[in-house]
Amino acid sequence: MRGLGTLVNFLAVIAGSGLGLFFKSGLKQRFHEILIQACGLATLFIGLGGAMTGLMKLSEKGTFETTNTMLLVFSLVIGGLIGELLQLETHMENLGGKLKSLLKANNDSQFVDGFVTATLVICVGAMAIVGSIRDGLTGDYTMLFAKAILDFIIVMVFASSMGIGVMLSAIPLLIYQGTITMSAVLISQYMDDTLISYLSCIGSVLIFGVGVNLIFGKKLRVGNLLPAILIPVVYFIFF
């Protein structure tokens, strides 16, 4: 059943966030801070590992060589310009603010940050992209099932320190992964291992950026870089 992986992932985020909220009230501030730092460090290296996998290859001589660097640069630059023009991150924050008002959580100072951060972490990674594509092309949802387990743990930790805004990230996840799954069916003739590798690499770089923001404070507008993921698709279809 196509789309089952995303549905299970959606439910895992809801459940993990709910469990995290259950523990939130019993944690002191210093525990909240160390949890955010731990999540940031883990996110940083998850992104770094995925990016290096896409950017490095083993040559016939047994040495590592860089690859795909120019496409990565062009994707980030062009995608960043598009995202900045559209002000995607601002729209994400505004959406978080509206959800905050809707849920009457005005006293929750971390609601918007929790929503935006969790959304970026669980949506733009390699597993979200590749898993959704596989689900759409072959109905293979095993990667998304594995991602659901990881997301359950991640959002549980996030929610325990950043509040209910984390739980609402399940909504964009459902839309995002569902869209990729359906799109994979429509453009299946262009979907090969090379394109999937490019998408995974760029997604991992964005995950690295989220990790930087978690550890060092909000410095990178990762939300505005999201269109970078689409650039390789456009390149493969038209060029």
From TrEMBL:
Q: One Pfam annotation, family name?
A: DUF554
PANTHER family, from UniProt?
A: INNER MEMBRANE PROTEIN, INNER MEMBRANE PROTEIN-RELATED
Task: Provide the species name.
Answer: Anaerocolumna chitinilytica
The protein's name in its UniProt record: Membrane protein
Q: Which residues cross the membrane?
A: 6-23, 35-58, 70-90, 111-133, 153-175, 195-216, 222-238
Entry keyword annotation includes Transmembrane: yes
What lineage does the source organism belong to? Answer: Bacteria, Bacillati, Bacillota, Clostridia, Lachnospirales
Which InterPro entries does its entry note?
Answer: DUF554 (IPR007563)
Keyword entries, A-Z: Membrane, Transmembrane, Transmembrane helix
